[in-house]
Amino acid sequence: MSNPTAYVSLTGMSKSFGGVKVLKEVDFDVRPGEVHALLGENGAGKSTLIKMMSGLYTPDAGTIMVGGKEVKFSSTRDAAAVGIATVYQELLLFPELSVAENVFLGNYPRTALGIIDWAEVRRRTRDLLDQLDTYDLDVDAKVLSLSVAQRQRVEIAKALSKNARILIMDEPTASLVESDVQRLMMIVRQLRERGVGIVYVSHRMSEIFALADRVTVLRDGAHVATRDIGEVDENQLVSMMVGRSIESLFPKADATIGETVLRVTNLNHGRHVRDISFDLRRGEILGIAGLVGSGRTELALTLFGMTPATSGEIAMDGKVVRIGSPRQARDLGIAYVPEDRGQQGLVKSMAIRKNVSMATIERLSSGIFIKAGEEAQRALDAVKRLSIRCRNIGQPVGELSGGNQQKVVIAKWLETMPKVLILDEPTRGVDVGAKAEIHTIMGELVKQGVAIIMISSELPEVLGMSDRVLVISGGRITGEIARAEATPERVGAAMTAHRTGEAA
Amino acid sequence: MNVKSLIRHETLLALLLVVVLIVLSFQSDRFFTVDNLLNQGRLMTEIGLIAIAMTFVIATGGIDLSVGSILGLTAILTGVFWQNVGLPLPVAATAAIAAGTFAGFVNGVIITRFRVPPLIATLATLALYRGLAEGISQARSVRGYPEWFYVLGQQDVLGVPTQLWILFFAAVVASIILAYTTWGRTVYAVGSNEVASRFSGLSVEKTKLALYTASGFAAAVAAVIFVSRVSTTRSDMGTGIELDAITAVVLGGTSIFGGRGTIVGTIIGLCLIQALKNGLSLAGVKGDGTIMLIGAVLILAILASNLFERSGTRT
Question: Which residues does UniProt call coiled coil (chain A) (predicted)?
C-alpha cells in the first residue's frame, strides 16, 4: 500500500512486548504538506506506531519507506537524519539550559576554529521562533521559566532546526489552555503550508476536524480505517475507535440533592487559595472551572490536607474540623483523585490489588497482618464494578491504559467510602470510551449520596456534568453559576475575570 | 512481571551460590566442612543483622551509611558503661543498645523532619558517631569481660553458633514483616512512589523514622555480638561494615532506587560474599584478589538481573 505521493510510508508494521501483540500489521503514510490525524483509544497502538516511525522502537515486522527508499531505523538519530522529528507529550527539554541552547543541542553551529558560535546559535534560534510567530520568547530564557505552551514551541523550533520534513506531534494540546491551543493550531497550519507533513495524535475531535486532511483510526493494535476528513463525521470516528457507538458523552444523572455535607468558610492557603467559601451538598456535582494556575488544584490540595489551610474553616456535616494531612482527610470522608495520575495517583509498578487497597490498608488488616484474601476480593469487586480492563488483579497498574489506570485510582478512593469525592481532571488523557464510563460512575456515586467536586479544564465536561459551577481565578471565586445558567460564555468570562479590590 | 523477575533474580543468585560452594569445595578440602561453614555463619552475623535492616531502608529508596559508626559507638558505650560507670554488664549492654537505637532515631529525624537526603544525613552522622566513639574511648580498649558474656559470640546453642540463631530469627521475622504486613507494604509503596504513597494517606514519615531507628537498633545489637565474639572493645569496630551490608543487599536484588527487594535475596547475597571471602582465602587467594572478585560478582549479578528484567517489560 505504498503511496507514490507519500514521503513516509509504513507497511505491515507489527510489534509485540513480552508476548503481547500491541500492533498488528498496521499501514500508515504521511504526505508532504498534510496533517494526518492518528486516532485511537489509549492502548490502541498509536504511541507504539509513532515510536517506530521516530526510530525509538524497532518493528518486529514491516517496512518503512522514506522518499521511495526502504530504511531501517536503529535510533532516533537515523529518523532525524531523514527528516522525521517528534514532539512528545512529555516534553524532552533540559530545564536548566536556555532556549537557544536547547534548540541546537547536539547540533551547534561552529566557527572556523571549531568553537561553538553562540552568536549564530542565538540568531538562528531567533529566526526559527519568529517563523513560528513567537516573537515574545527570549532565546536566553532558561527553559524552566517557560510555560508548557512555550516549551512546546521550543520543541517545534528544535525540530525545524533539523529541517524536519515530517513532524510527529503526540497529544500536543493535552496540557494546553484554550488560547494556546488556538495558537498551536495556527502554527500547525503554517507548517503545513511550508510542505511539512504532520502526524497529529489527539483525543480532541474539534481539533481533528479543524486541522486534519486525513485521519487514520487504530483499535486494539489494528488498522481500522484511513479516510479523508470530509468523508467522516464525529460519530463515525468515535464508533470506529471504540468499536461501538456511544449514546451520549455527558450522561448527567439526576440525583436527589440532600443536606450540606461540606461547608468551607474563608479558606486560605498561600497565594493560590484566597478567601474561598462554598457549600457542598449530598448528591451534588460541583464543577470547578478555572485556568491552569488559577488555584483550582491548590484548593483541592488544601481540602485534602496536603497543604493545610492557614486560616478559615472547614466543616463536615456541620462540625468544624481541622485537616492537617491526607490521612485526616481520608478519615473524615474526603477523597482526592489527583490531577497527575502517574506521579500522585498510582504506584505504577505495583499490582492493581495493592493500589486498590492502598488508602484502606489498615482497615484490611488484622493487627499488623494484611488480610490477603479480603484484599484480593475487594480488588476483584472493584475491577468488576468499574469494569477495569486487565489480565488479572496482579497486573502492575503501569501496564494498563490511561482510562483503566484512572479507574484504579477512583477504585482506591471509593474503598474509603468517601462522603466528598474530589476529582481533579478525572478524564485527562483518557480515551472517549473510558471517559463516558467515568462519567457514568460519577452519576452512580451521586445517586448513592456522595458529593463530588470535579475540577476540569474541559469546559464541555464542566457544563455537561455539574449541578453548579464555581469559577476560580487568581485563587478566588469569581463566579458561582447554577446549571441552568451555565453557558460557555458566562463561565469563560468568569475564568478570565480580573479580581476586584486588591491587586495580585 | 515484577514478582516473576524478583523470583528470577533470587533463583539466579541461589544457583550462583551453589556453583560457588561446589567450586570452592574443590579448591580446598577445609572449606566444605560443617565446622568451617558454621564458623563462617558466626562471622557473617553482624553484617547480616545490619543488612536485614538495610534491606528495608534501601527498599524505601533510602540508605544508611552510619551503621558502622553506630556499631563502633555502641561497642564503646557497652565497655564504658560496664567498666567505667560500673553498671552490671546486661544493663550496660542494654543501655548501649538503647543509645545505638537512639542514634538511628536521630538519623530518621534529620531525614524526615529536616528533609536532608539520606545519603547526606547518614554520611554526616557516619563521621559524627565515629568521632563520638573515638572521643569516648580515648584510644583505650576494654577487655576482660566475664566468661558468660562470650556465650553470645563464641559459643553454640544446640550445636549452632548462638548468634546464627539470632540472625535466623531476625531474618524470619523481617521476611514476614516485609511480605505480609501493612508496614512492609508501606515500605514498598514509599520506595516505588513516595508522592503517591503520601497522596494515598500512608504514613510515609512515620515509616521512615521507624526504619532508620530499626537500622540503628540492628547495628547496636550487632555491636554487642561483635564485642562478645572478639572479647574486646575498640572504637574502630565496624569501620566499613556499611559497605559490606549494602553490597549484600544490592547483590540480593534490592533496587537501590527502592520499591523492590526481599530478605531472602539479602541473605543469599550475604552467604555468597562470605563464601567467596572464606573459600578464596582458604584456596590461597590474597585479600585484594578476593575484593576484586566480589566487585566483579556484584556487577555481573546486577547486569544479569537487569537483562532478565528488560526482556518482556515495555517502557
Answer: none
Contact A28, A13 (CB under 8 A): yes
Q: Residue B104 belongs to what H/E stretch? A: helix B89-113
Asked if B1 and B304 touch (Cβ cutoff 8 Å), the reply is no
Partner-chain residue, chosen from B3, B180, B203, that has the shortest CB–CB distance to A370: B180
Q: Which of A205, A223, A287 lies closest to A461, judged by CA? A: A287
Same fold, A8-242 and A246-333+418-504: yes
ipTM, 2 dp: 0.86
Model-level pTM?
0.76
**What does the alpha-carbon distance between residue A381 and residue A152 come to, in Å, rounded to a whole number?**
42
Superfamily of domain A246-333+418-504: P-loop containing nucleotide triphosphate hydrolases (3.40.50.300)
CB A226 within 8 A of CB A240: no
Q: Which residue has the cell 531525614?
A: B111
User: Is the model's pLDDT at B167 over the cut of 60?
Assistant: yes
Q: 1.10.10, 3.30.1340, 1.20.1060, 1.10.3470: which CATH number matches B2-308?
A: 1.10.3470
Q: What are phi and psi of A362, to 5 degrees?
A: -65, -40
Contact status of B182 with chain A (Cβ, < 8 Å) = yes
| pLDDT, position B313 | 40
Is A349 within 8 Å of B203 when comparing Cβ atoms? no
Compute the nearest-CA separation of B212 from chain A (Å).
19
- Model confidence at A47: pLDDT above 90: no
Question: What mean pLDDT do residues B33-47 have?
Answer: 90
3-state secondary structure of B71: helix
**Cα distance from A421 to chain B (closest Cα, Å)?**
14
Across B171-192, average pLDDT: 95
Residues listed for chain A: 504
Q: Please state, in angstroms and rounded to a whole number, the distance separating the CA atoms of residues B182 and A263.
A: 34
